[in-house]
């Protein structure tokens, strides 16, 4: 059974896209089949994976492969076409067997208004009833078509209707963060919005109109996996004092504000499931320091940092040895994250 994991934080600049790509690659390296969904109209994940860097390259891809993107897949429901939603043929990621991407589309945001209206008024306007359940169905059918074990959904940094729908129809979610004031505020904000979205999703599932739609809205069963804290500088092998302050603040806000609210809405796994993966009460799966120019090299080569070859790194001798220590560390961290996620999501108590 495929497991859908949303990577969500409405604060930007927290490396959601980089995390999605690295985590998807690592899960595939561990023998899982993974579909990455680019649900951000900025299409950074699509650009990173396919090597596109500008609108001309994207436009050519859309012309050559008009049905091979998220927006096209949803068009039967959103544009009332006389056809049913069908799986999208995802693009295999080069050099990583078992990893695929469902490309994004820069015009996906055009569906925002329609979805927002449908999610508020579908119970009274019958013509809108197929829209709320269409996104979940498309991702489900596409993942089945590729025999996927996991779907990783890269979401845009907003509290949009599309994000609301994606999050509430996912099985699990991760919250990438960076150690700063704005991430602390974002977690406080999510503690307010996610319970409201959960209530909406329960009502949507229980709505007779949406239950009888061609694409019924699924029963919400979202569970929190944890946070990832990244993009900070080290000094003598530890975060600098300034960054450590915000790391502590994030962990405290998650444990004392966010998790209690999620518990009230049954959006947490049983405590023993987290403990079984050695996850502490702060629910932080990993802390990842700033890898400086390695991220840029990774993006240039459409390859995770830990999978970069010596040739791609472009160095030799002692410099290469020093860089390899960093890439090995990156490999260790993402391997541990992947192992924890597999443990959390494949536990019988997670279903």
Key words describing this protein structure:
single chain; 351 residues; alpha/beta; Rossmann fold; 8-stranded mixed beta sheet; two-stranded antiparallel ribbon; 14 helices; globular
Compact description:
This protein has helices spanning 16-29, 44-50, 55-64, 70-78, 112-121, 134-145, 161-168, 181-206, 208-211, 241-264, 271-276, 293-301, 310-313, 317-346; strands spanning 3-7, 34-39, 91-92, 99-102, 150-155, 172-177, 223-230, 234-235, 238-239, 284-288. It is of the alpha/beta class.
Question: What's the SSE blueprint?
Answer:
Elements: E1 3-7, H1 16-29, E2 34-39, H2 44-50, H3 55-64, H4 70-78, E3 91-92, E4 99-102, H5 112-121, H6 134-145, E5 150-155, H7 161-168, E6 172-177, H8 181-206, H9 208-211, E7 223-230, E8 234-235, E9 238-239, H10 241-264, H11 271-276, E10 284-288, H12 293-301, H13 310-313, H14 317-346
Parallel strand pairs: 1-5, 1-6, 2-4, 2-5, 6-7, 7-10
Antiparallel strand pairs: 3-4, 8-9
Helix pairs in contact: 1-2, 1-14, 8-10
Poorly predicted spans: none
Task: Assess the beta-strand content as a share of residues.
Answer: 5-15%
How many strands? 10
Assembly type: single chain
Between the first and last Cα atoms, what is the distance in angstroms?
A: 10 Å
Largest sheet: 8 strands, mixed
């Amino acid at each position: 059974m495929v497991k859908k994991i949303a990577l969500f934080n409405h604060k930007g600049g927290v490396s959601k896209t980089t995390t999605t790509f690295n985590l998807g690659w690592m899960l595939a390296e561990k023998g899982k089949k993974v579909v990455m969904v680019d649900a951000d109209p900025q299409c950074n994940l699509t650009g990173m994976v396919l090597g596109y860097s500008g609108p001309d390259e994207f436009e050519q891809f859309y012309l050559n492969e008009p049905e091979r993107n998220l927006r096209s897949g949803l068009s039967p429901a959103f544009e009332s076409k006389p056809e049913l939603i069908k799986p999208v043929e995802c693009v295999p990621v080069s050099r990583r067997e078992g990893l695929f991407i469902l490309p994004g589309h820069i015009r996906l945001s055009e569906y925002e208004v329609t979805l927002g209206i449908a999610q508020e008024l579908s119970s009274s306007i019958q013509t809108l009833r197929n829209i709320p359940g269409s996104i979940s169905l498309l991702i489900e059918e596409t993942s089945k078509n590729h025999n996927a074990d996991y779907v990783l959904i890269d979401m845009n940094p907003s509290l949009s209707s599309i994000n609301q729908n994606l999050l509430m129809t996912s099985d699990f979610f991760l919250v990438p963060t960076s150690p700063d004031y704005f991430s602390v505020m974002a977690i406080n904000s999510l503690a307010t919005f996610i319970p409201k979205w959960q209530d909406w999703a329960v009502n949507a599932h229980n709505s007779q109109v949406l239950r009888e739609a061609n694409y019924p809205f699924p029963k919400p069963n979202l569970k929190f996996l944890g946070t990832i804290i990244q993009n900070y500088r080290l000094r003598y092998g530890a975060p600098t004092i300034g960054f450590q302050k915000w790391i502590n603040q994030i962990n405290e806000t998650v444990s004392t504000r966010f998790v209690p609210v999620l518990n009230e809405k049954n959006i947490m796994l049983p405590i023993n499931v987290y403990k079984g993966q050695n996850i502490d009460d702060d629910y932080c799966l990993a802390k990842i320091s700033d890898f400086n120019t390695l991220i840029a090299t990774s993006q240039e080569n459409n390859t995770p940092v830990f999978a970069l070859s010596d040739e791609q790194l472009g160095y030799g001798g002692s410099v290469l040895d020093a860089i390899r220590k960093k890439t090995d560390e990156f490999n260790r961290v993402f391997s541990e994250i992947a192992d924890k996620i597999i443990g959390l999501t494949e536990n019988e108590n997670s279903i």
